[in-house]
From TrEMBL:
Reactions listed under catalytic activity: 5-amino-1-(5-phospho-D-ribosyl)imidazole-4-carboxylate + L-aspartate + ATP = (2S)-2-[5-amino-1-(5-phospho-beta-D-ribosyl)imidazole-4-carboxamido]succinate + ADP + phosphate + 2 H(+)
Family: Belongs to the SAICAR synthetase family.
Pathway(s) the chain acts in: Purine metabolism; IMP biosynthesis via de novo pathway; 5-amino-1-(5-phospho-D-ribosyl)imidazole-4-carboxamide from 5-amino-1-(5-phospho-D-ribosyl)imidazole-4-carboxylate: step 1/2
Name recorded for this polypeptide: Phosphoribosylaminoimidazole-succinocarboxamide synthase
GO molecular function, one term: ATP binding
EC primary class: ligase
Amino acid sequence: MEKLLYTGKAKQMWQTDDPEVLRVVYMDQATALNGKKKDRFAGKGAAAKGISDLVFHYLIDHGIPTHFIKQVSSTEDLVKKCQMFPLEFVTRNVVAGHFASRYGLDEGTVLTEPVEETFYKSDQLDDPFINESATLALDIASHADLEEMWGHCRKVNGLLKPLFEKSGMQLVDFKLEFGRLSNGQIVLADEFSPDNCRLWDLQTDQHLDKDVYRRQLADLTQTYDEVLNRLQNVLAEEN
Ligand SMILES: Nc1ncnc2c1ncn2[C@@H]1O[C@H](COP(=O)(O)OP(=O)(O)O)[C@@H](O)[C@H]1O
Ligand SMILES: [Mg+2]
């Protein structure tokens, strides 16, 4: 019997008959301000899942280990069940969002090198910043684990920055989550969608990510569909 393990802010995680496999359902819902703002958007789940599946396929093809198994419907995937690290790995190529407000910077400044930040994943605590020494002292991950995960993040940035550029978008920043499989391997888990990254149109600087919802700039589903279309076109040309 399938059992609902967890309802998050964007997805539901269902246990399947196989203890090593989860079914992920992408919901037609968006949240901001750590869940304080929440709304329904028809078609958002399918668009976010569509983008995430394309990106995960691309990363797998380029040697990144991930939890992805296969899609089962327009809003559902099967993934390998992981023991998640309660960490968010954020990579920033351009100043935006909290990084701009925290340091009093203008959004849009290109960083001389990518900034890497880790946050402790806790809705109760508002996902506080965490450094390596606290991560080690709290036994959240080892130095070797962190090196491995940041290594994957750097490779992902190196792959996705040019992919999005070809699709007419600047990859401003993104958040990744990792987990450990039962055999001990660390894999990229969760999702990659405009819920967890910033994409700006290269020509117009138009926002093509969840900021359109946070800042009430445009329709969320239409925006995600636009990103999905652009990625589909570029990937079709590559194959
Ligand atoms: N392969 C996996 N195995 C176990 N848990 C996962 C896996 N991939 C993602 N998760 C977790 O499932 C949840 C996904 O739902 P989401 O709506 O994104 O939640 P949240 O509101 O916590 O971000 C997250 O807590 C994420 O860490
Ligand atoms: Mg999430």
